[in-house]
Design goal:
CATH topology: 60s Ribosomal Protein L30, Chain: A
Number of helices: 5
Radius of gyration: 19 Å
Structural class: alpha+beta
Distance between the termini: 23 Å
Strand order of the largest sheet: 4-1-7-5-6
Bound molecules: magnesium ion
């Protein structure tokens, strides 16, 4: 049995809410008169998840991987960005153990859509739905979040991978058998 390395990652994102945009969380559209403004599709939760997994793997952040200055990411499907980011994480030998998220907004209510959001993220990350959790919170009327002008997402994740051995027999030269 090899030793495992476990790494925690934390992602956070915030987007303004404006008319004429879809309100997306984890690739699921919630009914809302306002939606997330952003260069991509604005999916605040998926962006926080991307930063969480990239951070845990030490692979940078979403802004480095998908610069807003690049036209290719204009109105991009954030689930596709997550798939690309998770592909890099998997190339590093990492496996996702679990993901836990908090979405803060006054409206719409997240709870009725929670399980669809969990299933959507779990599908891209190739883990059981039980390994992904999402909680909806309000900001108790405080600040821009409380005024319904913005939505925030936090995501914490655990990754694991097998420890890489430095060499096959590091001490053999000292103690030849
Ligand atoms: Mg974002």
């Amino acid at each position: 049995m090899g030793t495992k390395i476990i790494r925690v990652g934390l992602g956070r994102d915030v987007h303004p809410l404006v008319p004429g945009r879809p309100f997306l969380l984890g690739g699921v559209e919630l009914p809302s008169s306002l939606g997330e403004w952003g260069h991509s599709d604005g999916d605040v939760l998926t962006h926080a998840v991307i930063d969480g997994i990239l951070g845990a793997a030490g692979l940078g952040d979403i802004g480095e991987l998908f610069p807003p200055s690049e036209a290719a990411w204009k109105d991009a499907d954030s689930l596709k960005l997550l798939k690309i980011a998770f592909g890099l994480v998997k190339q590093g030998g990492w496996r996702l153990i679990n993901l836990d998220c908090v979405v803060t907004c006054e409206r719409p209510k997240v709870l009725p859509y929670r399980d669809r959001i969990r299933a959507s993220l779990a599908r891209v990350l190739a883990v059981p739905e039980q390994a992904v959790f999402v909680k909806g919170k309000t900001n108790e009327g405080l600040g821009a979040l409380g005024a319904g002008q913005a939505v925030e997402a936090l995501a914490v994740c655990l990754l694991e991978r097998a420890q890489r051995r430095r060499s096959k027999h590091p001490h053999c030269h000292k103690f030849p058998q």
